[in-house]
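Field guide to reading this record: the first block holds the primary sequence, the second block holds the structure written as discrete tokens, and the final block holds curator observations. Each block starts with its own label. This record concerns PepSY-like domain-containing protein, catalogued under organism Sphingobacterium litopenaei.

BLOCK 1 — SEQUENCE
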Amino acid sequence: MFKTLSVIGLMAASLAVNAQDKIIQLSQLPKQAQTFLKAHGATNGISYIKMEDELFKKSYEVKMNDGSEFEFDKNGNWKEIDLKHKAVPAALIPQPIKVYVAKSFPNNKIVKISKESSKYEVELSNGLDLEFNSKGKFLRIDD
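BLOCK 2 — STRUCTURE
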């Protein structure tokens, strides 16, 4: 039994070692990510594009010369947009989140948004982090 567990552990460790990050070109991004970047004028000023290839998960990170970052899943769907000090385009923000932020924090803009299957997280220009459910309902201020 111990030998079997040891072999399984060694196999898992060797697979984890095979996870790698690789610098790629814009043309190697999934088409959906390429379309997204072009639609938002983010194809000029790319510093690098990194493909993160882990055991069962692939993702892409696009870093811009101005420090902005975009993260995409394996299919090219955006996971995170971090524009540092610029506002995230309103078209990318779910309506309930836009309404909540405009009402509760009228002098701030959303500079970062990330989405997961069950929630959205946003960062405001004042540094405050907010969490919303997948429907855009406010949940809490994140520490």
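BLOCK 3 — OBSERVATIONS
The chain is about 25% helix and 35% strand.
Residues 2-18 form the longest helix (17 residues).
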